[in-house]
Amino acid sequence: MNEVQGVIDRFFDLQSKSKMLFADFLESAKKAAARRRIGRGVLYNMRPYQAQRSGFKLGKEIRAFPKNTRDIHVYYLGRNDKAILVEVYGQSGDVVNREFYFYNKNSMESICFDSSERVRNITLSYLDGEKFTRDVNAGKYGASIRAYKYNGGLVSMISVCQKEYEQGEMSTFQELFYYSGEELDRIINSFPNGFQQQVFP
After folding, report:
1. List of residues 6+ apart from 163 with CB closer than 8 A
2. H helices then E strands: how many in the chain?
3. Taking residues 13-29, what's their average pLDDT?
4. From the CA atom positions of the chain, what is the Rg in Å?
5. What are the residue boundaries of the structural domains of the chain, listed by start?
6. Predicted model pTM
């Protein structure tokens, strides 16, 4: 679990520099953005079925920023059409969580700031070509690692290990994906004690 500890250490290091990093990241992202898209709800899954794994359907694109800001997502896209910044609005326009994305050849890192401009969590994702192989996440209260398995080009299972910092050992469960053809039909969380929970749809 040295890999997880490395991400935990990075999280606390970044959190200690939150204010400075936030200003630098925001300025750089706004300068690098070639265009933006606005959605009511999630427009892009930045990781495989990220919205659906949380029980949500993808949202719809809208043309202009609305007066009602609740659940508005604003995507700033770079010249390669990849998202470099995602702003997620709450009930008030003053409540905005921002997630910055950084890309390397075989990895993608996201750094999320809450509305007080403090680092909320970070996730380092490893890729094999276009396929995500694992995510390592650390936040204020705990950490997790997700390992992806595929059947052909489709995600079939994600094995999850997670723990809060005061816990000695990680707890585990599996996210199981079922399809109708190539369309996602449902997602079920399966736990070691035999309990299963359908989280989507």
Report:
1. 142, 143, 144, 169, 170, 171
2. 3, 13
3. 97
4. 17
5. 2-200
6. 0.95
